[in-house]
Write the structure tokens for this entry.
Amino acid sequence: MCGMKIICLQEKLKEALTATEKVVGKNTNLPVLSNLLIQAEKNQIQISSTDLELALVYQIPGKIEEEGKIVLPAKLISTFINNITGSKKITLESKKYNVSIKAEDYKAQILGINPEEFPIIPRVKEQYSLSISSSVFVSGLERVVKSVGMSEVRPEITGVLFKTDTSRNMLILASTDSFRLSEQKIPLKNITQDFSFILPLKSVNEVIRVFNESNTSEEELSLVHGEQNQTLVKGEQIELISRVIEGEFPRYQEIIPEKTTFTINVPRSLLIPKIRAMSVFSSRSHDVVLTFLENKIEISARESGAGEGKATLKLNTKSSVKKNLSVIFNWKFLLDGLENIDTDEVVFKLNSEVQPVLLTSAGDKNFLYILMPIKNT
């Protein structure tokens, strides 16, 4: 097919180009990856991009006057279409490998390349699948994504674990960087098969970004685990295909405390600003000390070259702490956990100053956050 002609709305084309442009590859040995594939066939207009690890296919409505496909520089066409004003419809017409673009007050010629050079977007052969609300799915990923590890020697912690539990009809999302752990359980109906895989961090971030930007919060998504270590997240207009990480995710259930000695209910909205205030006095290890008492918490930090500070938070209900219990936290990691709890009352469960601390919501048992204290040296 050496020609193609389509007419579509500028706003829809803009959305698709903005989404797909951010997935293009940066591989200088394969310059074709910095391009987008635009296809018009079988009554569908699709715009695709890939970096060979991840692919995004975005479908838009429009009129197809002549079927075909073209490959164009992603940044060039996206920037041009994004800056067109005062025009509702865009016409793209290709001759050989080049394309002319016409809008109400605009004309452009863009040089493309042979579409046959563009990598084939893989088709995921389904092994297992489930349906999930877009808003629920994205919210769950946002809660666990910050705990993903950055390790060249432990690739199994550089993504989010997806695991189904048919006995409880749950999709479980989990992540860890070995200093902390996040787990989100999502109740679902009709889970028929247990499966698990690890989705790379970049793919997780793209799922969050794409489905947040596309305003599809009420849409049902299909999560498909396929053969050849591939996974598909599919909406009405968007398909995101990703490789999965090989390896076994850590057996993290072993570090979740089954019993805890101390339980402290804390108003989250009052604790967060006090931690932020004390963080200015923390050292390079980002340490702040939380001293738990029966009726209050003292938050303190000290840096020899800056000074020191202390804040006090009175508790609404008495804690089970009878003696002072001082725990040193990385304040950034602590805030990540607190900010992912969506009720104002957060529950701290702990056994000692050095054992893992469990943070949960007083009203939501489906999310937990475990944080290792910093050892006092």
Remarks:
- Residues 143 and 340 are 5 Å apart (CA to CA).
- The first strand starts at residue 3 and ends at 9.
- The radius of gyration is 25 Å.
